[in-house]
Design goal:
Largest sheet: 6 strands, antiparallel
CATH topology of the largest domain: Phosphatase 2c, domain 1
CATH superfamily of the largest domain: PPM-type phosphatase domain
Distance between the termini: 112 Å
Helix content: 25-40%
Order of helices and strands: HEEHHHEEEHEEEEHHEEEEEEHHHE
Radius of gyration: 38 Å
CATH class of the largest domain: Alpha Beta
Structural class: alpha+beta
Number of helices: 10
Shape: rod-shaped
Strand order of the largest sheet: 6-7-16-15-12-13
Number of strands: 16
Length: 382
């Protein structure tokens, strides 16, 4: 029987030496009876020290116990595959993929043919990828923190509802992402109340940065007392010279209320029409006279601003196209006409309730979440 066993092992040697994997053969007592040259090189132990040894004897007890469980599984199932390591002389651990299969020789004796594939490069790549993922996660957290800070800064620029004398103002701002390209302002100055909404093309960080820069320049113009037409010409020139690109533009609508004179100065540039409404009546649309800003030198009309008399009970509605460009489940767009009808139907409500009802009705029309930034300013003149 021993001769038969040795003959079977000898017959296998020639084949196993040609493989590009380390190979050992264990006999029925789990002792190593053969190791090819590549396996000996991988483990760094000469054949005379390895043959006749149980593989588990080469490992520390805790790892030997793990290896024993794999061996038991192989005995139970006939084969197994798992990642482990070879203990090299000197204490180094060589990561390997182990594949083990039970085989019977012609006399019915059971052997285990065990192959070991060096996966050092794979493990090195996995470790590098793991470290890269840790760095990416850290960078992602940093970006999220930066975005949250940017969102707080942008929210601080969003207009707040106020009472200016007897004039009431309600506002709403919601970016489609953490930060967005819309902004609005409500700026009392002397006997005038300036109001504006602006829509910068695109979404996200770039649009938000540009919007914040336009906001600062707009406030500077308001502090100087510039007329709305002159202000839009300045903003158009400023953006083209300092921030413009072939794919970047912005629209805006601005109003300046002089309550004592009962007069509203109005100007729009490429923006959805503002609305003036008496409660329960159809809104009067205030169309833009100028083109979108940031692209053309002559975008602002020579008569960009108009003077509109107002009376007690008038409500002024200015907004961005995140409201009108809302689509229902049939892909029908709400549009200016649909939004104007919502404004008319809600115009008899107190101003805070009117704002809330407008938001709820637009959300009810819309299929899914908002797809664009949304800004809204409502003014009621007593």
């Amino acid at each position: 029987m021993e001769d038969m066993r040795n003959k079977w092992v000898d017959d296998m040697k020639g084949v196993l030496e040609t493989l590009n994997q380390g190979v050992i053969i264990n006999d029925g007592r789990k002792r190593i009876v053969f190791a090819n040259r590549l396996f000996l090189k991988m483990i760094g132990i000469p054949a005379e020290e390895l043959l006749g040894v149980m593989m588990t004897d080469l490992y520390p007890p805790e790892d030997a116990a793990v290896l024993q469980k794999h061996i038991e599984r192989r005995i139970l199932e006939g084969q197994s595959q798992y990642e482990f390591y070879l203990p090299k002389r000197g204490g180094e651990k060589l990561p390997v993929l182990i594949t083990a299969r039970q085989i019977e020789d012609p006399d019915g004796n059971v052997f285990a043919v065990v192959t070991a594939t060096d996966i050092t490069e794979q493990k090195r790549a996995e470790n590098a990828l793991r470290q890269a993922n840790v760095q990416l996660e850290q960078r992602h957290r940093e970006i999220e923190e930066d975005l949250l800070l940017a969102a707080r800064v942008q929210q601080s620029l969003a207009p707040s509802g106020l009472s200016w004398g007897k004039v009431s103002v309600e506002t709403f701002y919601q970016p489609v992402r953490t930060i967005g390209g819309d902004f609005g302002l409500v700026a009392p100055r002397g006997k005038n109340l300036s109001l504006m909404v602006c829509d910068v093309s695109g979404h996200g960080i770039g649009s938000a940065l540009v919007a914040n820069r336009i906001y600062s320049e707009t406030m500077s113009q308001i502090e100087r007392g510039a007329g709305l037409g002159a202000m839009m010409k300045h903003l158009n020139t400023f953006v083209k010279a300092n921030l413009g690109s072939s794919v970047f533009f912005f629209t805006m609508v601005a109003a300046r209320l002089n309550y004592e004179d009962r007069n509203l100065e109005f100007a729009g540039a490429g923006h959805p029409p503002a609305m003036i409404i008496q409660p329960g009546q159809a809104p009067r649309l205030l169309e833009s006279r100028s083109a979108v800003l940031g692209l053309l030198d002559d975008a602002v009309d020579n008569e960009a601003a108009s003077e509109i008399p107002v009376q007690a009970g008038d409500r002024v509605v200015i907004y961005t196209d995140g409201f009108t460009e809302s689509f229902n489940s049939k892909s029908d767009m709400l549009g200016v006409e649909g939004f104007a009808e919502i404004v008319r139907e809600t115009s008899k409500l107190p101003l805070p309730e009117m704002k809330r009802e407008i938001l709820e009705r637009v959300a009810a029309w819309r299929h899914g979440p908002a797809a664009d930034d949304m800004s809204l300013v409502l003014i009621e003149i007593p």
